[in-house]
Amino acid sequence: MIRNEKKNYSLKVGYTVFTGLVIFFLFIILVGTEGYYFSKTYNLNMYVKNTNGLIEGSKVYLGGLKVGAIDKIEFTTVGENNLVLLRLEILEKYKSRITVNSYAKIETSGLLGDKLINISLGDPSEKPLNENDFIPVKESLSFDNLTDKIDPIVYSIDKIANNIAVITDSLNGKSKLSGILFGMETSNDLKFAIKQLNSLASKLNNGNNTFSRLINEDSLYTGMKTLVDNLQNISDTLKSGKGTIGKLIVNDSLYNNINEITRNLEKVASSLNNNSTLAGGILNNPDGYEKLEILLDQLAKLIEDMNTNPEKYFHISVF
């Protein structure tokens, strides 16, 4: 009897210890993985060219507040580009704050340089991102990106420095360039040119010639300003359609009338070129012109004879 009681007691202790160990390991797993096993979540996706050290389980922040973690990282191909797909697991209660205009950035946290994803807060009036939507990625400033941008600048500066060194070596040596820049003849020419420029400037400032008056007197500026104002007034008048020229420019009736006259002239010209009309026959047929001339000559003679001898054509009898 006593042996059975000891056995039952040992079993109870064993079960208790085993249960405690299971609970302890479950607690370690839950705390270590920081998974949201008892909270409702949803997934968002993002494409990056470089994870910059992100791993599965890396934290996801929204406006600096932790709201999730990276659930999965895998390679993928989009079009002709090889990218990395990050699947984010985010608490659903923050869904309304991640909208279509939100964006994600890869940032560094702490002295050890832990990588995380920080999502910008969206506007309340904007549409939230839904399950499995893709969030845009904004490139963040990192040491690698900064190095990539600085390298071309450093290369250009180094190239410029080398070119300057070559030029200074040429100037210090016995090259033709150094002789031209530092020779006695060049120095004298420069002094003479400077002297001439000083003389010209003195004449322009103090002389009474045309150029000095144009430079020093205000009458030129006043006249030019008046001319520009007048031209502006003329332009405004033409735009408003005032005056004969303004009406000719603005009003379409002139163009329509000219177009109508042109069409009528084309019809007249076509009629004149056609021999079937009287005018066309007269203009285009030499015989018709000669016959018309003979007819007019005979008609003139007939009228003259009627004036001279009216009795031949008019017989008046009283009875």
Automatic annotation (TrEMBL):
Residues 41-120 form the Mce/MlaD domain. The chain crosses the membrane at residues 12-38. The keyword DNA-binding does not apply. InterPro entries: Mce/MlaD, MlaD_Phospholipid_Transporter. It comes from the Bacteria. Pfam families: MlaD (PF02470). Keywords: Membrane, Transmembrane, Transmembrane helix. This is Mammalian cell entry related domain-containing protein. It comes from Melioribacter roseus (strain DSM 23840 / JCM 17771 / VKM B-2668 / P3M-2).
